[in-house]
Amino acid sequence: AKLGIVNGGADGYFRPNDPITRQQMAAILWRYAQYKGVSVKANGTTMPDFADRAEIASWAGEAVSWAYSRGIMTGKSAARLDPNGGATRAEAACMLMRFAENVTDIADRDGDGVPAYLEAFFGSSDESADTDGDGISDYIEIYQIGSDPTVADSSEDADDDGLTNLEELETYGT
User: Fold this and answer.
1) Distance between CA atoms of 153 and 141, rounded to whole angstroms?
2) Half-sphere exposure (CA, 13 Å, Cβ side) for 54?
3) What is the C-alpha separation between 136 and 73, in angstroms, rounded?
4) Distance (Å, whole) CA 141 – CA 130
């Protein structure tokens, strides 16, 4: 609450034991993303004209649009969003999982098995599975060889066994 990520109701009360609505959940995730410096602009995905779209509160409109565009929030059906409906435990878990996968640095954007925060740490690409183009994936270089994924090192011998990194990978898969 101190950081503005969660707010009280219109009556000024916080109500921590009340159930949470789907639009409240979207707003909390939207504000948290803002707090962490993540872009909270909708990505161009157009939200369908749900029959209950007018039920989205004015304070939640931008957050719901963002959550829908990022794949965090989906409709209850093709015709209904249910913004004021309570978020079930399953819906809350799915929204949190989608937030982690689609918005945070936990995501593996290029599918190479290396989360974005590690790609950023090493300076490797989160759009390419082999940043240095040496034929060894970033994942193998980081987790198996222990080498820098931004430096072509397929001809080096990281463990001094007489085989280059690439020969060892091709021969033994390690």
Assistant:
1) 9
2) 1
3) 37
4) 9
